[in-house]
Amino acid sequence: MFKGFYTVGSGMIAQQRRTEMLANNMANANTPGFKAEQSSIRSFPEMLMSNLDSTHIPTQKGLNLRGLSPVGDLSTGVYMQETMPSFIQGSLRETGMTTDIALIDGNLPIDEATGTPGAIFFKLDNGNGTESYTKNGNFTVDANGYLTNPSGYFVLDANSQRIQLQNDDFSVSSTGDVMENGAVVATLGVAFAQQPGALSKSGNGLFTSDAGNLPNAQGAAGVGYSFQQGYLEMSNVDSGKTMTDMLAAYRAFEANQKILQAYDRSMEKAVNEIGRVN
After folding, report:
1. Are 206 and 111 contained in the same domain?
2. Which DSSP letter does residue 157 get?
3. 178 and 228, same structural domain?
4. Where does this one sit in the cell (predicted)?
């Protein structure tokens, strides 16, 4: 009975956390460059249940031999093991703003260890000596002429240098060359993550690498991409599927809740009625 409480409770916690993750996805359905989170729910290791019994041997003094009779496996509940962002390309939205730039996925190599394709990102100087990465190309030109992202981080070029412009009257080619007055002043930097699942989210659509700065995508074997000025890559959240998943998670939570209430009523009956002396 008590094991049932723990099993049902773990199921409720897992579904609650999954609902919170899905709600965050829905809240960012219109956030440029946002990558939807995915969850994996796993079962705790199962326990082998056995019945303790004894066998009586009719000797002169009598002998009882204790033994175990297998009953079967018992699940000990579930848990949400981890959340992983999906790096599928989001849809493009035209804005007409010269400072809005979409980084479009091309041919990306498949990682042999994970079986998933790599990912490419804009490179940002986050001010603490390391780089951050994003697919949100909603940039602006600050008061000093530097190209920055919404968090105020400096956009880096192919040489990991900040990009300084005269104003927002510039153009970007499909290969990432930034031109002013017909002259190339910089090339947008692009980072390539062979295993993007190893990146850490740092908020506001930003990612960081615990293993140091990512390598440049420029010249990397098999890595293809292009740029589109005046466009933004939107969130890759599928609103319809997310709403369906939220409803399924809610129903699963509700089912676990009803089982918990049934256990509670059974315990109440056991305490108040079983063993009552008439």
Report:
1. yes
2. B
3. yes
4. Bacterial flagellum basal body
pLDDT over 90 percentage in the chain: 57
188-197 per-position pLDDT tens digit: 999 999 999 8
Q: Which residues contact 200 (CB under 8 A, 6 or more apart)?
A: 207, 208, 209, 210
Provide the pairing of β-strand 200-203 with 231-233: unpaired
Q: Does residue 71 fall inside a structural domain? A: no
Structure tokens at 48: 């082998």
Residue type present at position 29: A
Name the one residue in this structure whose structure tokens are 């305490």. Answer: 271
pTM of the model: 0.79
pLDDT band, very low/low/confident/very high, at 241 (cuts 50, 70, 90)? very high
193 lies in the same domain as 264: no
Q: What is the dihedral of CA 233, 155, 109, 220, to 10 degrees?
A: 150
DSSP state of 196: G
Most confident residue range from 61-75, 190-204, 226-240? 226-240
Q: What single DSSP character describes residue 215?
A: P
Report d(CA 24, CA 37) in Å as an integer: 9
